[in-house]
Amino acid sequence: MKIGVVTFPGSLDDVDARRAVTLAGGEVVALWHGDHDLRGVDAVI
Predict the structure, then answer these.
(1) What is the 3-state secondary structure (H, E, C) of the chain?
(2) How many folded domains does the chain comprise?
(3) For the sheet containing 2-7, what is the strand order?
(4) Whole-angstrom Cα distance, residue 10 to residue 42?
(5) Residue 17, exposed/middle/buried by CB under 10 A (0-12, 13-18, 19+)?
(6) Nearest to 3 by CA among 21, 25, 20, 19
(7) 1-35 residue pLDDT tens
């Protein structure tokens, strides 16, 4: 499952979310808060 993890300026929570997705067996797709394309992810954190 491809999970998009959104990064916001000044936030470090995306690092924790990426690790959680990886540990759960998901594929992390890094997303920037200004992205318009979700790159085919199944869910977004």
Answers:
(1) CEEEEEECCCCCHHHHHHHHHHHCCCEEEEEECCCCCCCCCCEEC
(2) 1
(3) 27-32, 2-7, 43-44
(4) 26
(5) middle
(6) 21
(7) 999 999 999 998 999 999 999 999 999 999 999 99
**Domain with 20 in it:** 2-44
Tokens of 2: 């491809």
Locate tokens 């979310």: which residue?
17
Residue 44 is predicted with a pLDDT of 98
Q: What are phi and psi of 39, to 5 degrees?
A: 55, 35
- Residue whose tokens read 């992390």: 28
Residue for token digits 């997705």?
21
